[in-house]
Amino acid sequence: MDGYSLTDLWSILVMQGFSGLSLFSVLLLMALGLAIIFGQMGVINMAHGEFMTIGAYTIYLCSKITEQYFPALMPYYFVIAIFAAFAIAFAIGYLVEFSLIRHLYKRPLDTLLATWGLSLIMQQIFRSTFGAREVSATLPDWLMGSWKPTPDIDIPLNGLFVMGISIIVTIAVVLFLYRTSWGLKVRATTQNRVMAGAVGINTKKVDRITFAVGCGIAGIAGASFTTIASTGPTSGSLYIVDTFLVVVFGGASSVVGTVLSAFSIAQAQSILTFFMTEAMGKVVTLMAIIVILMLRPEGLFTSKVRR
Question: From 55's CA, which of 66, 200, 253, 291 has a CA 20 to 30 Å away?
Fold first, then answer.
């Protein structure tokens, strides 16, 4: 800490904290989708990061098409492209569940291996389609620049936008799970699949839509990711470990736990990596999580379910 005044330290903590909020937003969106798939369905989806990449490449394609053919729509395309990212990731997730995942329920290790293989295939498809180099979408002007609450603090506008998206999606997921008839079916299937089927719930359809929704949310995470970094074939895979860490640490079936876990991990990594190397910051964060999980192996929050 030598060489830093109290004012400097405060400015660093605020800016790094906000940088952590940007990471938190992407991690939260990724983890919300994975929490639905892993927490609600018990499927270990190692290809979840690739659905994030699908969303990111969707934004890239929309930006290039709009820029070339409809330049007058550049200020508006990004919001529409977010819905496209969700829809495309949702549709591909639906097909993956129908063609692969539905044959592997109650076989978690098999889902791990199968989806890991799927992630490698998807990465190669991205590489063959878009090239090995990273690409960047052209962002609207209103996402550029920063907000300066004080002369020493700069908060990027794209980070604020990503935070807004994460808040909206989190509220939508909570409403989806706890305020809709479909969410009731999802929770009933999670708690007791046999009994849910006995009362007339189509559990196979519930599984398919739930998996697709989780993939669609990952697509939104990819759309948000394009505002803070460039996109490459392996961009999503770089987040998959942290995403699983968020879900397990927060409690696999808890939305509140997922939010608090994503916030804690993102803030710890962002602040620690400023004062340490990036690798050491992640090591310290991981060690702290391991110690907490040793004391509380079920995670921060748990849901009592009947199997």
Answer: 253
